[in-house]
Amino acid sequence: MNISRSSLSIALLVGAAVSFPIVTQTNSASAATLLSENFNSVSTGQNLTSGIPSFNVIGDVDVLGSSPILFDAYPGNGNYIDLNGSRTGGLSSIAAFTFNAGDSVTIAFDYGPSGQNENFTASLGSIFSIPFSSNTLVFSKFSQTFTVSSPTTANLVFASGNSGVNGYIIDNVVLSSVSATSVPEPFTIIGTLIGGTAAVRM
Q1: pTM higher than 0.85 for the full model?
Q2: Is the C-alpha dihedral spanning 29, 129, 100, 32 positive or negative?
């Protein structure tokens, strides 16, 4: 609400009583980034059971990409995770995230198979659980927003659903949220004024 200084004085007729309401102005909340990881800071390697930024490892995984000696399924995308190392694997966020009812949660990541007959599930507790399966070697982008139905605390999980040494590729993971409640920034005009000139206080 824009009010110039010149309008902050209100001339009143002598003897007139004027009541002013309390007005509250609330700014829109912006999205908060809870997790952002492109895996470029970790060295390529096979059958890793730890050392993945932002995530704990389920089973074991491969870090593929820029290494000249390891298979690069999707050149030009830096480093990324193969959810299967020597066996069925996955990632679970180190942090557990707490949400309230009505919060909006957005998950975005890149994904693609590294072979045939592969599948995985991306999940965040009761908020979402999304299965993926494809035999087409295409690196795709996924992004979707969900509304939290009840208070919950959960980890972000990418879990492979197939056996063998080839798993789905995961990269550029971003989890963000917008709170259902925002902090009001009050703009207030208060009081009953009689006569004279009244100054409006913010």
Answers
A1: no
A2: negative
